[in-house]
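Question (not urgent): is this output format expected?
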Amino acid sequence: MPERMTDEPRTVVGMELLVLTTEPGQQLLGQIASVAEPSVSDIERWRKHHGIEFVTAALRLAGARRRAAGKFVRSSEMWLDSTGVEQSTDERVARFKAARFRRLIGSEPVIDLCCGVGIDALALAEAGRVIAVDRAPERCRRVHWNLEVYGVGGRGLVVCADAERFGTLEGRWVHIDPDRRAVPGGTGRRARSISDYAPGLPFLQKLRSEAVGGAIKLSPASDFEAHFDDTRLEIELVSLDGECKEATVWFGRAASCRRRATMLPVGATFSDHDGPDSTAALVAAPVDWLYTPDPTLIRAGLLDRFAVKHGLKRAGPGVDWLTGPELESPFLTRYAVQALLPLDFKQLKRELKARQLVPQTIKVRGLDVAPEELRRRLGLDAGRSTTLLLYAPPGGRGRAQVVIGERC
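Got this back:
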């Protein structure tokens, strides 16, 4: 065990540590993990044997570990809480960022501010060294535990301190993951504006002038364009398994371009240095191929540059799907166009029946159409599977279209 409790007070953290470091606790965690959804009778039986506080702590730990199973390789051994899991970086994304730090600075330590449950910290420790900082003592306990679980406790120093009062960062390398749930009023909802992050925008901007370089982790849905539109900054949009996970602002000596789109786990990347300058891609109706791009290209504002470089066009004015000659790229999902129709449900149904096709997948762009409702209206249940791609230019600049396509 990374740490053993001796005489910890019966706080939430103390009870969780008692569960983690005792044989009865380990046995109880194993029993809970073996049951997908513990019943009332399960919980009552455990409470009679271990006590209410002990079981409550074990259920809390087991629940957090279960939610983290897809994000962290060693989630079954880690000390986690549900909020920390929700806000934490996926382990694969954290390792990707840590590898970039390692290429920049070697084994020099990175200061990881607002480290949460420590996923970025442990990745940075694996790549070099880290000073993990969080103002919440309970988080610091969890980070220390998790560093030990991954075998990098000797390469990480955990400091319990407020990020804004940690001390001078001059000449240091920094990573920060500000709290996105510190919305005024204590509602617990996620902040959409960076102005509502904690630490807030003034501190994040101050980091740029103090630290020699580093990374600021932001939500990909945040208003980063409004606050970090600076030629000296690089904003990297990172996706994992097709889902946009974060917007990372690289600053100082860490910045290498202005905009970058990166796909994980394949590691494909495209930046504003990789294609010709272009204000907009041309528009053309899909004929042979329709492509849906990885969301990082769109969110990073690189779709037109990518399209021009590869000889592709937008499928409609303002439409984020592309068309053009056959092309293989990790950034594109390809569909061979079997038919292009104006969006008329009766005509679409006749076309599908004539071709003996059933829509297995339905993708919609720019239309208020629910895929399940469309599938119900079509009422087709016999035939070969196909994909429907429905789209319309924003602002009524063109007629809605539907492509019957085969994914390749």
